[in-house]
Amino acid sequence: MSRVLLIDTNLSSAPIYDYLIDKGYEVYVVGGNPNDYLAKKAKNYINVDYSQIHLVRELISDLDISFIVPGCNDLSYLISAKLSDEIGFFGIETLKNTQTINNKEEFRAFAIEAGLPVPKTFTRESVGNNWPLIVKPVDAFSGRGVTVVHASEQANLDDYINHAKSFSKLEKYIIEEYVEGQLYSHSTFIVDGKITVDFIVEEHGTANPFVVDTSKVDYSFPQEMLTHIRHSIEVMVAKLGLIDGLVHTQFIRKGQKYWLIEVTRRCPGDLYSQLIEFSTSFNYVESYVSPFINKISPLANYQNKKSLVMRHTISQSIDGFFGAIKFNRAVNIEKLFPISLAGDYVKASPFGRIGIIFLQEQSQEDFDDCYSHTLKRTLYQIHH
């Protein structure tokens, strides 16, 4: 029985763990938080902070690990890329490409050189009169350290820069034009440099504008724009020489224009994989995991269905105790994944979550109504 090391213990990696167990692998999971979902569930949990790469390297040797699988966060994939460059594992992108993709400053520079549409960037000295701007850490995620700066706030720009740097392990930031529009994600699986299957997901942040908490598969996204986006991804894949597997991209669309915002090769968090599977029947987890265990992804077996499913991460815009959730309309729950317990003190998004819920409706009218209430944060009330 081959041994697999899953580098992540978060709830979002649970479908990855379940798939590997179901296929008969002996799975070890590593992470430094014993309160995480997989730390509690997995038979072979190892309480090690995987940012300490020398400790993970020792585990791989001591346990005779055959395959490593990154989980659902950037650090997990970065550590996997470093280990793969040193030892050699299946399906892991090179460290150089991983850093180019994940580091916002490096990705912007690459994209501009490759002719890909991205927001304009500025140095502290070249800001001029280009307001509003957005200041971000180059290596943080989930809206941490992000600030939109308007002309009236320009005197505070250095404070916002320091705020961004405080969330960056590299203590680096990026300043770029603030592009307004609708946020989407494009999730695709690449084989031999070409897109085989892909999905467009509409995304919103209701508790925090920089943290996605509500999303649905967009079945009617304009074909012409999708063609352009596919071309952009395939240009990136070709210029970087990316290996087969998942390429997940967030972009902003406004009218006939779009801008690539972030790209990653790891599985997106907050159970994104389950949104795709519940909505379309596509086995997202199997396609994600297959390259890491040296299997051919069964993309040809995919038969698309179009169910009306939405994903929502229940969270708060302010810190406070969590007591209960009262729904203001009838809902059809596909699945509910509780994260916090009644009585827990839950921090505001992005630092705290109450649960992840998947809702399904049979009619478009009912689905649109449910989705609209969710975006307005009127679907439910959180009682303290």
Read across the widest sheet, the strand sequence of neighbours is 13-12-9-10-11-14-19-17
- Total helices: the number is 11
Shape: globular
Distance between the termini: 48 Å
Total beta-strand segments: 20
Major sheet details: 8 strands, antiparallel
Weakly predicted, low-confidence segments = none
| Overall pLDDT confidence | 94
Strand content: 25-35%
Helix content: 25-40%
In terms of structural class, how would the helical and strand content be classed? alpha+beta
Radius of gyration: 21 Å
Task: For this entry, give a set of tags.
8-stranded antiparallel sheet, 29% helix
Description:
This protein is of the alpha+beta class. 29% of the residues lie in helices and 28% in strands. The chain is built from 11 helices and 20 strands. The chain has helices at residues 14-22, 37-41, 53-63, 74-87, 95-102, 104-114, 157-166, 223-240, 272-280, 284-289, 364-375, and strands spanning 3-7, 26-31, 45-47, 67-70, 121-122, 133-137, 147-149, 173-177, 182-191, 194-204, 214-217, 245-254, 257-264, 308-314, 320-321, 324-327, 333-338, 345-346, 355-361, 380-383. It has an 8-stranded antiparallel β-sheet with strand order 13-12-9-10-11-14-19-17, sandwiched between helices. A 4-stranded parallel β-sheet has the order 3-2-1-4, sandwiched between helices. Strands 5-8-6-7 form a 4-stranded antiparallel β-sheet. The N and C termini lie far apart (48 Å).
